[in-house]
Specification:
about 300 residues; alpha/beta; 2 domains; 9 helices
């Protein structure tokens, strides 16, 4: 009995597009490095036309056969990228978003490309990737165009945190990834000065000097980053951790400072997001702007 039979699967969506092919390649390497099976899914997205099946415009068995054929082409890409990895294929009549969500329970990760065969090719983040990142029960990795490497001694793991519970979860997850691949970990924290009142009204804070207030906010961000680094090294002793604390909008800082990372880990929600939101505003924006794979954890 192989070890992969007891390992959570890596699930990757494949629709035949170049972006999906790159996601399959990355997912296959991830699965091989984790000794996990890989499941390649193609979703036919035919339930919107279910009434047509009753009039024999399309046959479910034919559609399923064709869908599995697409998935098998994705599986061939996976076997080429990671010979020896255990690859299975599956299909669904649902949309890709719903099918991946259904498979996410108990999976090691869902992997998707950041664009696909959607209706609007110019959208930076495909609707399937956004839906899965919002609703999946497991970590979701959105892979950009190109051929990004897995983490390693020369390819760092970056993690963004604001000190929230979600940020702490992201730090622990990123530390585990870095330790597994013997990669350095970069902790990123952003700080932004508050808007100043141009009419000269009294400040609602105890600070009367804007410079002092900025300094206090920056020091608070440094404390958050230091605590995150301590959290990471406590969870993974011996881990190499660096801290980056930069001034600016969180999304801009995270996207810029994570450039060159093998993967950027972010929590699904932060301090500034309503609890009712399934995916926080900063995490959503980072998915659009980051140039490396982004892993969203809950």
């Amino acid at each position: 009995m192989s070890a992969t039979e007891h390992s959570p699967s890596v699930i990757v969506g494949y629709d035949g597009s170049d972006a999906a092919g790159q996601a399959v390649t990355w997912a296959a390497r991830l699965a091989a490095s984790r000794n996990a099976p890989l499941v390649v899914l193609h979703a036919a997205d035919m339930f919107r036309y279910v009434h047509d099946a009753g009039t024999a415009i399309w046959d479910p068995e034919d559609v399923n056969r064709a869908s599995l054929g697409v998935a098998e082409r994705g599986a061939d890409l996976a076997r080429t990228a990671a010979p020896g990895v255990e690859v299975r294929t599956t299909s669904s009549m649902h949309s890709g978003a719903l099918a991946l969500e259904d498979l996410s329970g108990g999976a090691h990760a869902i992997v998707v490309g950041n664009t696909g065969r959607g209706r609007v090719a110019g959208i930076l983040l495909g609707s399937t990737a956004f839906h899965v990142a919002t609703r999946a029960e497991c970590p979701v990795v959105v892979v950009p165009q190109g051929d990004p490497p897995l983490p390693g001694p020369e390819h760092r793991v970056s993690v963004a945190t604001d000190g929230s519970a979600s940020g702490t979860t992201a730090v622990r997850h990123a530390a585990e990834i870095a330790a597994h691949y013997e990669a350095p970990l970069q902790v990123i924290t952003a700080w932004e000065p508050p808007p100043y009142d141009r009419y000269g009204l009294p400040s609602p804070t105890a600070f009367t000097d804007a410079v002092d207030l900025d300094k206090e906010i920056e020091q608070a961000a440094e404390r958050i980053a230091s605590a995150a680094a301590e959290e990471a090294t406590t969870a993974q002793p011996g881990l190499e951790v660096t801290i980056t604390v930069s001034r600016g909008r969180a999304v801009d800082v995270i996207a810029e400072e994570s450039t060159g990372a093998a993967v950027l880990v972010v929590g699904a929600r932060g301090r500034g997001d309503l609890k009712s939101l399934l995916l926080g505003s900063t995490s959503r924006a980072v998915l659009h702007l980051a140039t490396c794979p982004v892993e969203i954890v809950r």
